[in-house]
Amino acid sequence: MGSQDNGGIPVVDFANWSADGPPEKKQAIASQLAKACQNVGFVYIVNHRIPHRKVEEAFAWSQKLFELKQEEKMLAPHPPGHVVHRGYSWPGLEKVSNSMGDEEDPNLATKLRQVSDIKESYEIGSDDYVDQPNVWLPGHVLPGFREFMSDFYWDSWENAKMILQAMAIGIGLDDQDHFLRYHSGHENQLRLLHYPPVPATDLEKQSMTRMDAHSDWGSITMLLQDDCGGLQIENPNKAGEFMDAKPIQDAIVLNVGDLLQRWSNDVLKSSLHRVTLPPRQDRYIGDNRLTRARYSIPYFVSPIGKSIIETLPSCVNGENPAKYDPVNWDEYRLMRGSMQYQS
Length: 343
Prior knowledge:
Elements: E1 11-13, H1 23-39, E2 42-46, H2 52-66, H3 70-73, E3 87-89, H4 108-112, E4 120-124, H5 145-170, E5 189-195, H6 200-204, E6 211-214, E7 220-225, E8 231-234, E9 242-244, E10 252-256, H7 258-263, E11 273-275, E12 284-285, E13 290-291, E14 294-301, E15 308-309, E16 327-328, H8 329-337
Parallel strand pairs: 1-2
Antiparallel strand pairs: 2-10, 3-4, 4-5, 5-14, 6-11, 7-10, 7-14, 8-9, 8-11, 12-13, 15-16
Helix pairs in contact: 1-5, 2-5
C-alpha cells in the first residue's frame, strides 16, 4: 500500500483477494484497507472486480445520456421532494451540503441554495426496490441504456460485497459476512454525474459551485471518475484544508460513509469531500478558462431500510466508549436527505 504519489490517499491492491482464498492473503489486504479507512477515510482500490470494458461502456452511456436534449432528459424527472431519489436531476435542483437535516433554522435549506450546484445527475437503483422505484427514460430515447445500467448496478454490487467482507476482517470481526448480513444490494444507488463546463472565475468567486464539502450518509461509496480531476478530500491532519484525489486509471475511489463511522464507533473515518476546479491547467479551455466537462459514477452502498445500526461491541472499550445511539437507517437517510431536495 502506498501513498507517496497520490496526495496522501493510500492505494490498496485487491489482486490477491478471493472470498474463499488463503486467510493470510485476505488478512493482509483487509488490514491495509482498514488502516487507510481509519487514518484517511478514502482509499484507491486497484485490481477490483468491475471489468475495464464495462467501466468504459458506463462512461460512454453516461455521456450519451447527458448529451440528450433537455426535453428528452426531462422525460425521466426526479420526483418532487427528497423521499424518492431516482431519475434525472437538472442543474440547480439538488443542493449538496454537510447539513444533517435536524438543524433548528427553518430557513437553512433556502440559505444553502443561494449558491447553486452546477451539475446534473441520473439516479438508478434496483428495479425490485419498491420504496425507491426507478424513473427510466422511455426505451426509444436511448435504446440499450436501461439494460446496460441495470447490469452495471449489479456488477458494482458484486464488487461492493468484496469490500464489505474485507472491511469486516480488517477491523477484527470474526465473521467476514457481518456487514453483508445488513445489506441486500437492493437499497444501493448508482449515480451518473455530469459537471458541465463553467467559467473558472465563477467557481473561484463562489457564485456557483460544483459540489460543496460533504460526507456521504451510507455504509461505503465506490467512485469511478474520468481524468478531468476536481475531487478533493479534507486533509486528515488539518481540518479545513483539502487535497486532490487525483484520477488513477482503472482505480475505484472508495470512501467510508457516516453510517459505517457510527457503526465502528469512529474507528473508521467518514471524511469531508468536494468537487471544485480541476488542478491541471490543461483541463481549461479558452481565454476565459472554461472548465472541461467532468463525468463521474458513484455507487452508494446502503443497508436494508429497516436496519437498526448499533455500535459494534468490538469497537467499544474503556478508552473509546460508545458515542452513538442506535439508528434506524430509513429514518436517518430521510433526515439527511431533507436538505438536498426541497419539497
